[in-house]
Amino acid sequence: MKILNTLSLLGLAIIGSKAMKNISSKELVKDLTIGWSLGNTLDATCFETLDYNKNQIASETCWGNVKTTQELYYKLSDLGFNTFRIPTTWSGHFGNAPDYKINDQWMKRVHEIVDYALNTGGYAILNIHHETWNHAFQRNLESAKKILVAIWKQIAAEFADYDEHLIFEGMNEPRKVGDPAEWNGGDYEGWNFVNEMNDLFVKTIRSTGGNNALRHLMIPTYAACINDGAINNFKFPRGDDKVIVSLHSYSPYNFALNNGAGAVSNFYDGSEIDWAMNTINSNFISKGIPVIIGEFGAMNRNNENDRERWAEYYIKKATSIGVPCVIWDNGYFEGEGERFGLINRSTLQVVFPKLINGLIKGLGNSIKTRTTIRRTTTTTSQSQPTNDNSCFSVNLGYSCCNGCEVAYTDSDGKWGVENGNWCGIKSSCNNTSRICWSEKLGYPCCQNTSSVVYTDNDGNWGVENGNWCGIY
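User: That's the sequence. What structure does it adopt?
Assistant: Structure tokens below.
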């Protein structure tokens, strides 16, 4: 894979305390490669089992996922992801009318996770997700407008000085829940509701000041779907070049999403993907309207080889028309439900490396080199043993790591995590002059990871900062 180094000098608009690039969304999406969603986490709701008055942040783990960490985002960044969608449900976390005040503890936790994503040097997409007050019925419209304005004004104020790396997504799959029109592309009532809410969302963010005057915003079609009815009746705002259409496409349906009759485990026909991309291209891209596919995926059916082929095909098609995609990861790997897990969030083990490989292969030459930022608590380093096979941690009662991936740094040295246990990084990992087989092929050695993403006849390959590297 050839890696492109792209560095553009763009005019800066200093609006708040951070520099905000005054670029169109068409330009912005060019820097988005492949995305990952923190599914079933901040969007989880457990109204019947949790006392939200006692603990506002317990809902983060109430659907079975672990508490989100900075290390998770560093790992994803090293794998090549540079866009991180953070689905967030605000219901249960805000008060009554007329202020609808968001709980401070919840806002702080959301802010913390947004920072986790941005600390990688990548992009974050923050939204409102599993809400019940914005079901797309006319009877809900006026009350929904009041809540939308109140919630988004608070979110916009919280992040007013953040630059273009933070994107706001107004709604997630707004639709007529429980109605026959829920998933078939909608009807006039639903289309009108979504269009009015989208228009109000954009106006609300623009009115809040700071960098929000130039904030890049995502707005969905009805249910974020690609059905003809939803697209043909979708209203895109004029005169604002920092708005992006948000679409979801789990295609082909029987391979990717269907969990009942008709489901298949083999990927052999890309015609549904072709149709979706052609529809997006003819209705939006060809007209200069940028698009992000905010959700896509193919659930586990013990068919990783097929999912690898599917991922490469899907991403190649999307990349060819300039549409970045964000894969859905709900943290579930087995069972009867929707099995969209990719990475074990406890151990940071990539459960389906071939699937990740398919995503990266699908990007082709579009993946960009970047530097992953790591905030650590490093202080004055103590001297380390000179034996390349030894490490400082043995004297502290911890074994040496087999690999070189750094999870934490303190005054003792660099630490990794393997099999759920802390271990010390060997001094040999600090030797930047080491060589390996991949250098003969024009690729560097992996310096900080031992996670194998792909294996071929040359050897084991890893990914660091979006670049292929050899593991030795």
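The first helix runs from residue 25 to 28.
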